[in-house]
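REQUEST FORM: STRUCTURE PREDICTION
Request ID: SP-0412
Submitted by: Lab K.M.
Chain count: 1
Length (residues): 779
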Amino acid sequence: MKKLIILSLFVPVLVHAQVSFVTRWKVKPDSKGVSCENGEISPDKRYVAAGNSQGGLKIYNFSDGSLVTELDYYKQYNPTVSKDGEIESCYFSFDSKFIAAGGNNHGVKVWEVGTWRLVKYFSGGVCDGMAFSPNNQWFAAPSKGTVNIYRISDWTKIATVTHGCDVNSIDFSADSKYMLTGACDKKVIITNTSNWSTYKNISFPASVKSVRLSPDGRYFATANSNGFQTNVMTFPDGVKVKTIIHGSSDPYYQESVEWTADNQYLLTGGDNNPGKIKFYRRSDWSLAASFNIHATGSRCEYIARVDDYFLSAGGDGYAVLLKYTPGTPTPLPPSVNITSPANNSSFESSNCIPVTASATDADGTITKIELYADNVKIAEGSSSTLSYNWCNAVTGSHQLSAKAYDNSNRSTTSAIITVKVNNTSIYYPIPGKVEAENYSAMMGIQTQATTDAGGGLNIGYVSAGDWLDYRITVAASGEYTINLRVASAKSTGKIDIRSGSITLASVTVPNTGGWQIWQTITTKINLGAGQQMLRLYASGAEWNLNWFEGIAITPPPAPQPTTYYAIPGIVEAENYFAMTGVKTETTTDIGGGLNVGYISVGDWMDYAIDVAATGDYNISLRVASLKTTGKVEIRSGSAVLASLSVPNTGGWQTWTNINATIPLQQGQQILRLYATGQEWNINKFEINQTDGLKTLTAIEQVQSQSVRIYPNPCKNILQIDGLTTETTITIIDTDGRVWIQQPADKNTQSIALGHLNPGIYLIQITDGTTIKTLNVIKQ
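STATUS: Completed
RESULT:
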């Protein structure tokens, strides 16, 4: 038969004027008499669970402390290994269907309450704390420094939260929207359960042994392992309200915290020789009562609560069930917060700042709210919400606060909200340096003192999606080097430099080795001249910025021509003095050499020409293409002299001529061939002054040998000389359609073109064995 120890049934321990704390019963779950590290009460108040050092989880009747069963967590423990089988944590689900337990090195087990059937085992390491969510959807249990979150319906792991070392305590908010985890890395992480993202990461001066939310969700408290310290913080923002010292005479840990269900008191437990539980009034955080629960030389290891019942697990090996009864309650003070603007918001000096404060009172009504700017009252109202437009604020940083009063004449002052008012007339010059804290607007970031050269402030606490806007005035349009002075202990940082909706550049922030170990990173952007807004957008999180600077990049000098080609005359296509985008290649056209090709829309070539006399000129371009997408503009400065389409000539090295008439002025000048359509080649172009009938170009003379056509361009009658009587003449458009085909009956032939549409036509002349092709422009 198992040994059962039940002591002190319904024996009062101590009654203070405002608190009664009565022992219902206590048991010793460990036959060796070593520390009882934890215990829990089932929400339906049927059972109490307490672990021992020998791998067993004992289940007791809530009503009288009689033993129901002992569950095997790790009964095969090795007694030679210190605390090998010790149960460090246990927890009932909120529907009282499951009980879970975890220990030093043997993972987590979950049993069904009532049948005590093992339903799930999770392997893992140290498990000092665990919790079920109040909505009965999730179970959270750590394995060393990682909290694993499981879906209860199928026990599938759905998320993790990572600390730097062992996790000691877990708690959920009453609405299950947040999870709090405390660990030996001196941090409490508040996790948003909608997507399991980090809402807040809060640092403390020592290891967090216990973390608990107040039932009304206004505060959470931590037990820290330094001088019996309890820190009370607002929830969920994590602003410190009070530091409580559980006991300063003994340099031991404080182990546990809990709240009364009526929100009247905060309980702390730890080493006080003997182990005490102390009650602190939430109205002013003063000590209300102190109870000796565990033996001299032991500590209160853990406090659990269901309704007004508490279970205290102690270093003397006992688990003690106690009943709390409040005395005359002390009126609670109101709660007040500034709901807008957000902390560290920025505003223009020309705009009013909309300020809203909201107050509540748990046991009364709000009678008044006062708004303060830099400790000077700026507004007052008698309802629970006060909204006010604060105008004409001077340039600089300001501290906003609100003070609320209730019907008991108790008052509370809100946390301070810092806002920045910017001078709308200040634009920072580029080239030049801009300090990171001189933003005109921002979202999400905070400032802090920097140890970088020059001191001052840097911006930090950056999350993905945060941003900063800076007013700059750029001296001249052009390309600029942007240097950013950054620091980070992570490799997740990334910054987009934006102008409006356009991302000018993206840079990665390296792990510099620490949050105050600084490094300069560089990128290049193009800026227009004048006043404008530059945004630094955090596309990656966790980086600091001290300053950035813009340095103008001096562009290389534009190419200048060294040779001017005489006009009238022929210019080889490769003899440009400046270009963008094109390439040269060997040509198989008459005369050989190079042609220009690989032409895309927007490419261009500049040619230096020297025109003999002012007048109208015929320009003939020697082109080839396998597509019909080619188009070229002939430009002089900003003026477009002519636009031509490049036909499909049948191949990239099948050449033809396209022609236009352009006006040119006498003297040296630049002629640009600009591609408004793509995929065409050019070998050369020839420019000759128009003189009535004599319009045959040298290119056409080479191709046609003794055959001449004129006038070209032609409006009506085209003359062809140098024919033989055995010659056939065919006129074809650029789409390959035949419009005229006739034999030549004499050496000079006249052909009527009046019925043809304006455009470029090919004239094919064949004598049965040889085909000669010429171009004619129909006007």
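NOTES: The chain has five domains: 6-326, 335-421, 426-552, 556-690, 693-779.
Reviewed by: T.R.
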